[in-house]
């Protein structure tokens, strides 16, 4: 991975103008797509397949006048007045007639005590139902605006002291927007960046790239409305996530770049190395984020799946920008990114070099040498921190776990529900209508349920509906059943049920379950099937389905990321420890959200409009997003520890040095995350507010308590055991080289063995399933059109070496460079340049060699040969070519290959003199390596060899 990212970073820095123009073009294209394809946002809540949603769809077909979107107009007279008096009735009747004439309005209940509007017991208030002829998602903004204008006109026409308010399900949602607090979060981020990086240019780049990334992501979300409904919280979630991770990823890469510059590196090379090392951590962190967000689809709820996809797109764009645009902008910045001390040292060194002609060539001033060798010094604060938490690691672990457990305990009382108008801002008209309804009619009138009944087989439709309504009315928690009627075709009946509790009350949920529990009895007694639907019932179904999805979601997401982390860190313990730490952070986040939104702690300070249950999809979104972010910090921190451990082999010292190298960046990124997320709390919408607070708390706890306190203590306590992994598992897992160990090796070997087809130095292959050397050390140098023979009494040993040269088998130690590429990390590219023929299994060796020679000649004749052209042909087990005619034909074809610039490697198992003679017949001038002379090896069965041969 680091090798690929190194090339991407180097190309991006070298082609900076092209990269910048490319991303500007992507932004413009996303804007054009949003403008031409966007169809607006849709806040309708639905879950296909649930009872409430299915019943509503059937009702839309059989009883459309009851299935359309609805609103309510509540009118309240002053104290002592009667709402049915002429002064009020005349104004209400006029408003009713005007509203009925509005586009999309189907009917309005008149002010009639017997068959019309609902009148309160004290006759002070009336509630008129407004039925629309469209679903909620199809209600136009012009209709909503016209209804509110009629509300204003009615209030002016009523006697002084009267109130008129418009509410109902079409006004239950409020579109979120970006306010001052969100902007304040960005300002705080800039301050943190300035303190961390010490440069205005360096601090401005992460903000610039993050803004570009969220711009592309949000515009794509609006363009996606052409494909299906997207709710108003989705672009805000993409904005929040994209901004947070965009700043963090850019900061991580820029900090690593400045570290490289502080050691004296050149700008382009430094950008490439920073992209290779920090970019590997960014890519891994981004993948975990994407997996976690896409895991939201486990809930099988369309709007939640869309939110997860939008968030994952924002994260993916942030990763792409970090590894392409950030190196390009780094290159534009040039020397301005270099730390002042290193810049001053370079200037002094240059002055000394030009002013001291007598000085020996290549010498440097002590100050310049110090700047290039030492780099940035570790902070005393973070050094003291890590030493304090690792001095008594068991005590640190116990204190952290106990403290987080206390913080998480309130989450045991966490209640979930879908918020309605009661959770809107206190000044919102729908919130006012909700409260007036609750005050004058009871909270149950804000949570009216609809029970549908299929009565197509009934002989007495009206009687059956009334009988069923009577049974429902006897249930606990029912205030009244105001309506029980069949449709005009007498095939479907509708029963309205007013519960005693509000939309989020536990008794309302229990009543829905009790009505559904009557289904078998009603089917037996009346031959009628019933279903419970309506806005309240559907939101209850949403909450239940989300709760059921949390366990499979957690298992799938955590399981996938555990496997990925095991590949990255080559450890079993580190991924398990990381996941357990994540659970602690989630518990703390849930606990604080419960304290604020249910218990009221700091509710006024955080502008919480109403205490009560937390939005039902908060836990699954918070778990998904926080898992990805927690793994970000785990990767940023532990990858540096792993890097130090690989370099030194000292597990305990690696914890300290890895912490020193990454703690400053982790602190900065976490502070930025908290600032960005918290900025969405006071001004956030009812959906986003608890999610934003949970993420802010979760990130703070995870970064500062779990990752920077608990993790060093656990790693110190475990020592070398923290990096334990079964040998067999380690062999079969792919290697990603997040720490850049193999990249450093590639760079170090850049000038070694130039102009050769293959070269080996101290090459050793261990015995299968063992760390004991089997073959080697082997050394050779093969010219670009040369020939090399490899012989041994062990057929397996010969095959192992030639497969290693062909990139099919990874050596265990030593250096191996084939066609200019260092193995084993460039094995995939080498396999495209090296052809392997097994003389035992090939049907016609001369014919195969003739085909390869023709291919090589065609490539040689091209003016610009392909980078992946054939460079080496490996012929293994050439000892089986016993027929003299066949050997001569093979020798001729090998000579043709070499004439076309292709090198040849021959595997020759067998006794010494015989193998040498066969090599001279096939390639007289070939060099010969006798593995028996350099290896004291057994002749193992070789499971690794079998795997390599199969591949």
Layout: helices, strands, pairs:
Layout: H1 2-14, H2 16-37, H3 51-62, H4 64-67, E1 70-76, H5 86-100, E2 105-108, E3 118-119, E4 125-132, H6 141-157, E5 163-167, H7 180-197, H8 200-224, H9 233-262, H10 267-294, H11 302-333, H12 340-355, H13 366-374, H14 380-391, H15 393-408, E6 416-417, H16 429-441, E7 449-454, H17 461-473, E8 478-486, E9 492-499, H18 506-517, H19 519-526, E10 529-533, H20 535-569, H21 573-597, E11 614-615, H22 618-648, H23 651-678, H24 688-718, H25 727-732, H26 741-748, E12 756-766, E13 773-783, E14 787-792, H27 795-805, E15 813-818, E16 821-823, H28 827-833, E17 834-838, H29 845-861, E18 872-876, H30 884-899, E19 903-909, H31 912-922, E20 927-930, H32 931-934, H33 943-950
Parallel strand pairs: 6-11, 14-19, 14-20, 17-18, 18-19
Antiparallel strand pairs: 1-4, 1-5, 2-4, 3-4, 7-9, 7-10, 8-9, 12-13, 12-15, 15-16
Helix pairs in contact: 1-10, 1-11, 2-8, 2-11, 5-6, 7-8, 7-9, 7-23, 8-9, 8-11, 9-10, 9-11, 9-23, 10-11, 10-20, 10-22, 12-13, 14-23, 14-24, 15-21, 15-24, 20-21, 20-22, 21-22, 21-24, 22-23, 22-24, 23-24, 29-30
Domain SSD: 181-332
Membrane topology: Multi-pass membrane protein
Biased composition (Low complexity): 352-365
Quick structural gist:
Among the domains are: 1-43 and 180-337 and 376-382 and 550-736, Multidrug efflux transporter AcrB transmembrane fold (Up-down Bundle); 340-367; 749-950, P-loop containing nucleotide triphosphate hydrolases (Rossmann fold, 3-Layer(aba) Sandwich), CATH 3.40.50.
């Amino acid at each position: 991975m680091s090798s690929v990212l190194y090339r991407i970073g180097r190309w991006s820095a070298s082609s900076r103008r092209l990269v910048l123009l490319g991303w500007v073009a992507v932004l413009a294209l996303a804007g054009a797509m949003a403008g031409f394809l966007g169809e607006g946002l849709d806040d309708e809540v639905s879950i296909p397949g649930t009872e409430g949603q299915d019943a509503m769809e059937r009702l839309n077909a059989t009883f459309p006048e009851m299935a359309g979107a609805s609103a309510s107009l509540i009118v309240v007279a002053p104290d002592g007045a009667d709402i049915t008096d002429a002064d009020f009735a005349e104004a209400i009747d006029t408003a009713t007639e005007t509203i009925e004439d509005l586009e999309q309005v189907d009917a309005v209940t008149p002010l009639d005590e017997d068959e019309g509007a609902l009148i309160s017991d004290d006759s002070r208030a009336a509630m008129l139902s407004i039925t629309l002829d469209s679903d909620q998602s199809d209600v136009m903004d012009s209709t909503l605006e016209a209804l509110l204008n009629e509300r204003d006109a009615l209030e002016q026409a009523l006697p002084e002291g009267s109130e008129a308010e418009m509410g109902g399900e079409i006004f239950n949602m409020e579109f979120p927007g970006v306010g001052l607090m969100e902007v304040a979060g960005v300002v705080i981020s800039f301050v943190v960046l300035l303190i961390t990086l010490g440069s205005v240019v360096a601090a401005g780049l992460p903000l610039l790239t993050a803004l570009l990334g969220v711009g592309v992501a949000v515009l794509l979300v609006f363009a996606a409305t052409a494909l299906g409904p997207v709710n108003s919280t989705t672009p805000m979630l993409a904005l929040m996530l994209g901004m947070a991770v965009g700043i963090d990823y850019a900061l991580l890469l820029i900090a690593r770049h400045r570290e490289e510059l502080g050691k004296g590196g050149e700008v382009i090379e430094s950008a490439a190395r920073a992209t290779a090392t920090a970019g590997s951590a960014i890519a891994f962190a981004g993948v975990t984020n994407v997996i976690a967000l896409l895991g939201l689809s486990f809930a099988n709820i369309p709007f939640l799946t869309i939110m997860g996809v939008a968030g994952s797109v924002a994260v993916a764009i942030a990763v792409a920008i970090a590894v392409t645009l950030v190196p390009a902008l780094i290159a534009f910045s040039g020397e301005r990114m270099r730390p002042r001390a290193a810049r001053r040292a370079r200037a002094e060194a240059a002055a000394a070099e030009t002013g001291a002609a007598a000085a020996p060539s290549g010498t440097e001033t002590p100050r310049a040498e110090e700047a290039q060798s030492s780099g940035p010094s570790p902070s005393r604060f973070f050094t003291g921190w890590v030493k304090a938490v690792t001095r008594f690691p068991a005590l640190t672990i116990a204190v952290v776990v106990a403290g987080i457990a206390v913080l998480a305990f309130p989450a045991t009382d966490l209640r979930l529900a879908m918020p309605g108008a009661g959770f809107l801002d206190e000044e919102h008209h729908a919130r006012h209508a909700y409260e007036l309804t609750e005050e004058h009619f009871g909270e149950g009138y804000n949570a009216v349920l609809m029970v549908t009944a299929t009565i197509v087989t009934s002989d007495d439709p009206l009687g059956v509906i009334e009988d069923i309504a009577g049974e429902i009315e006897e249930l606990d928690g029912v205030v009244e059943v105001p309506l029980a009627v069949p449709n005009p075709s007498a095939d479907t009946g509708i029963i309205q049920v007013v519960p005693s509790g509000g939309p989020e009350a536990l008794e309302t949920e229990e009543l829905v379950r009790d009505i559904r529990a009557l289904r078998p009895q009603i089917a037996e007694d009346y031959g009628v099937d019933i279903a419970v639907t309506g806005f309240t019932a559907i939101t209850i179904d949403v909450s239940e389905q989300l709760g059921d999805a949390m366990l499979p979601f957690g298992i799938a997401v955590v399981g996938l990321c555990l496997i990925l982390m095991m590949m990255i860190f080559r450890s079993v313990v580190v991924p398990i420890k990381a996941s357990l730490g994540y659970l602690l952070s989630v518990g703390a986040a849930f606990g604080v959200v419960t304290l604020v939104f249910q218990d009221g702690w700091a509710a006024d300070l955080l502008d919480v409009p109403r205490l009560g249950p937390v939005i039902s999809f908060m836990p699954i979104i918070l778990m998904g997003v926080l898992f990805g972010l927690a793994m970000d910090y785990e990767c940023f921190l532990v990858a540096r520890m792993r890097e130090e451990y690989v370099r030194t082999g000292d597990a305990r010292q690696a914890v300290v040095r890895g912490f020193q190298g990454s703690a400053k960046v982790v602190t900065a990124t976490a502070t930025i995350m908290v600032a960005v997320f918290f900025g969405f709390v006071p001004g956030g919408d009812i959906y986003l507010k608890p999610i934003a607070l949970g993420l802010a708390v979760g990130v703070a706890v995870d970064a500062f308590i779990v990752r920077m306190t608990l993790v060093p203590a656990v790693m110190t306590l475990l020592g070398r055991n923290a990096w334990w992994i079964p040998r067999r598992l380690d062999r079969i897992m792919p290697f990603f080289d997040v720490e850049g160990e193999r990249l450093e090796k590639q760079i170090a070997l850049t000038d070694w063995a130039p102009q050769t087809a293959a070269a080996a130095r101290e090459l050793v292959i261990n015995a299968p399933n063992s760390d004991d050397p089997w073959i080697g050390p082997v050394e050779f140098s093969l010219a670009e059109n040369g020939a090399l023979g490899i012989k041994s009494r062990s057929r397996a040993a010969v095959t192992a070496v030639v497969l290693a040269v062909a990139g099919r088998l990874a050596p265990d130690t030593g250096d191996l460079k084939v066609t200019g590429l260092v193995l084993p990390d460039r094995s995939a590219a080498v396999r495209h340049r090296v052809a392997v023929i097994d003389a035992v299994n090939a049907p016609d060796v001369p014919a195969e060699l003739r085909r390869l020679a023709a291919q090589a000649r065609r490539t040689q004749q091209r003016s610009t040969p392909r980078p992946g052209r054939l460079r080496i042909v490996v012929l293994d087990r050439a000892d089986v070519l016993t027929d003299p005619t066949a050997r001569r034909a093979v020798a001729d074809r090998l000579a043709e290959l070499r004439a076309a610039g292709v090198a040849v490697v021959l595997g020759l198992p067998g006794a010494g003199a015989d193998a040498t003679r066969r090599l001279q017949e096939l390639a007289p001038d070939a060099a010969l390596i006798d593995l028996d002379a350099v290896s004291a090896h057994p002749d193992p069965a070789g499971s690794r060899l079998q795997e390599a041969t199969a591949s």
